[in-house]
Amino acid sequence: MNKRLASGLLLLTMLIGLLVPTGALADKKPVLYTGRISLDYGADSATGVYYTPDVISPDSSVKRLATLKAGTEINIVDVLPNYLEINYGNRTGFVLRHRTSNIVAVDPVNTPRYGTVVSQYYTTLDRETHVMAKPETGSEVLITLQAGTQLAFVDITGGWARLIFKRQYGYVNTLDLPNLQMVAPNEQSGDQYTPLAVYNSFYNIADNEMNNNRIENIRVGVGYMDRVMQPGETLDFNGTVGPFSRRNGYLSSWGLFEGELVPSVGGGSCQLSSTLYNVVLQLTGLTVLARAPHGRNGAPYLPHGVDASSGDLNFIFRNDYNFPIRIQSHVQDGVLFIAFYRDDIRS
Q1: Which of 24, 200, 219, 221 could pair with 337 as two cysteines, CB 3.0-4.6 Å apart?
Q2: Looking at residues 113-127, what average pLDDT do you find?
Q3: Same domain, yes or no, for 21 and 65?
Q4: Is residue 50 included in any domain, yes or no?
Q5: Nearest alpha carbon to residue 272 among 297, 246, 235
Q6: Residue 42: which domain range?
C-alpha cells in the first residue's frame, strides 16, 4: 500500500465521520481494526464506553453508554487522538486508547499501521498564531506560536487547518497561514523541496531549569539526528543521537521511564525518537526493526500507542526504498517538526 492509498483511506474515514453523527448506527462505518479492552489494569477491571470523545479526563460523573470488562473484543471504526470509536450494539461509542490493546488491522494490506496520522499539509508561520481547541473563533487557545515555527496538518475543513496537539485535535485559522504547502501525495512526487511525510509534536515551554534543559536536549539531539539515509541503511536512534552524555552536549532533565518521570542526562530525547516514529509510520518503504512504548500510558505529548522509547530501550528503522531519504528537523516555540525528503530528485 502506498502513501496515497493510506491518505485516501484516512480521508474516507473522516468524510464518513462528517456525514454520520456521533454515536450513529455502527454499520455506517467500516471496521478498520479489531482489539480488546486491556487487561493491564487487572482481569476484573472495566472500561467505559462514552457517547462522545469530548471528555479529556473521564470520571464516574460522566454519563456512559456502557461498561466493558477487561478482555472484551472490540471492533474499531475510527482512531482519534485520545479515543477509539467502536461498534456497540446498533450504534458506536468511544473508549480511551490507553484502555485497549491487541489492535490488529482487518485489512492490513490496505489499512495504515495502527496510529498512523497522514499529514497532508505543512507550513512555516510568518506571524503570531494561535492553535485553538475547536475550529471556531473565541475557542480556548492551546498554544501561541511565533513566526518561523513549522507545523504539520492532517487536513483542512471549513477554513480551519487541523493538527494533532498532544492527545486532542488543534485547529489553526487558514487566514493565518499564507504559505500553506502540500506534502507529496506519493513517493514519486517528492523531491528536495516537497516532503514525503511530516509530523510535529508539542513540548512544554515553561521557564524553569529542568524544562529548559529538556528543550536544549531536543535541540542537541536534532543536530545528531538530521542526516541522509541511503537505500538499505539502518538508523539506530541510540547509536545515532546518543550516547546521552554531558560530553555530547546533553543536560540533566526529566525523562520518561516506564511511564514515570525520572531525572536523567538527555531527558527529552524520547520526544525526538517518538516524533520520528510518527513520520516513519506514514511511509511504507521504511521498516521498523525495534520500537518500545513508554509503559502502558505512553508519552503524554502524543496520542497513546505511537511513542518510541530511547535510552535503555531503542528505536531502529531501515530505509527499504531504492532512493536516499533526508531527515530534516526544526525546534521552536514548543514545536518539534520533522520532515522526510527524497534526496535523489533535484527540481
Answers
A1: 200
A2: 96
A3: yes
A4: yes
A5: 235
A6: 3-105
Look up residue 193 and give its three cell numbers: 523541496
Are both 290 and 148 inside the same structural domain? Answer: yes
The SS3 assignment for 284 reads coil
Contacts of 329 by beta carbon, 8 Å cutoff, 6+ apart: 222, 225, 226, 272, 336, 337, 338, 339
Sequence-distant (6+) residues with CB within 8 A of 155 are 11, 14, 120, 121, 161, 162
Q: Are strands 150-153 and 168-173 parallel, antiparallel or unpaired?
A: unpaired
Q: How far apart are CA 162 and CA 224, in angstroms?
A: 30
Instruction: Return d(Cα 303, Cα 152) in angstroms, integer.
Output: 15
If asked whether residues 76 and 167 sit together in one domain, one would say: no
Residue range 208-230, pLDDT digits in tens? 999 999 999 999 999 999 999 99
The CATH number assigned to the domain holding 14 equals: 2.30.30.40
Pair (172, 248) in one structural domain: yes
Q: Are the C-beta atoms of 284 and 308 separated by less than 8 Å?
A: no
Residue 170 near residue 163 (C-beta atoms within 8 A): yes
CB 200 within 8 Å of CB 335: yes
Domain boundary among 105, 133, 152: 105
